[in-house]
Design goal:
With 249 residues, the chain is α/β, with parallel strands linked by helices. It has two domains: 2-68 and 224-248, no CATH class; 82-210, HUPs (Rossmann fold, 3-Layer(aba) Sandwich), CATH 3.40.50.620. It has ten helices and five strands. It has helices spanning 2-13, 16-31, 37-55, 57-68, 98-101, 104-119, 138-148, 165-175, 191-200, 226-248, and strands at 82-85, 124-128, 156-159, 182-187, 206-210. Strand 2, helix 7 (138-148) and strand 3 form a beta-alpha-beta unit. Helix 2 runs antiparallel to helix 3, helix 4 (57-68) runs parallel beside helix 10 and helix 6 (104-119) packs across helix 7 (138-148). The protein is elongated and about 70 Å long. 35% of the residues are buried.
Length: 249
Amino acid sequence: MIGFYLKNLIAFFIQPFGLIITSFVLGLYFLYKKDKNVLAKVFLSLSFFLLFIFSYPPFANLLVLPLENLYSKYDEKKTIKYIHVLGGGFNADLSQPISSNLMESSMRRVVEGVILQKQIPNSKIIFTGYNGCKNIAGSVMSSKLAIALGVKETDMIISTKEKDTKEEAEFTKSILSDGENFILVTSASHIHRAMLLFKSVGLNPILAPTDFRRYIVKSYIRMPNVESLRISQIAMHEYIGILWVKLKS
């Protein structure tokens, strides 16, 4: 558990938002130190440059393109028993409708899983994801949306213990027979790292990416925006994750 939180803490400081905040704080620190005006200017300028470049739409698109271009959408006609939908972000405020509880990426994953489950006779959806500091697990929240979309409870397998993608892969391996095919649904930017982790435990999933963020650039004259900063954050998180997986292997 400590390693999980430590990994996320380190990742924060080497991702766009963490880099921007760190540079800005250092700039303010040196601004109030005697004879440190040069360093203050360097770090404050760096923070504004990082904010601009990571918020600039064509740059964010350039970051996410290599991740999302690796695999195309699911387009096979095989009889598959299991469809594993990976967990994502959510909030546990049950006073809100289920459509507001799941974050955008999580909702897209669930919807794609439901679509595939409806298309493939006798298939079951696997939902994984733990509760973190909340009073309900992400996998349970995902299953609530699936039920609202018409999936029967008997057509779902729900596990609430998995903290990351590696643990989700290990859970799926525990319920599959040797060599059994299954579909893996997750965000397009995350699909490559997920594939590496699932292969590391001896599984070879049929990939079904969703939640694509890339787009066709028609003009480079674009204003920075928050959504592009978010896309840059997602992309850098995945690059760091892929590097970590490869270093560990």
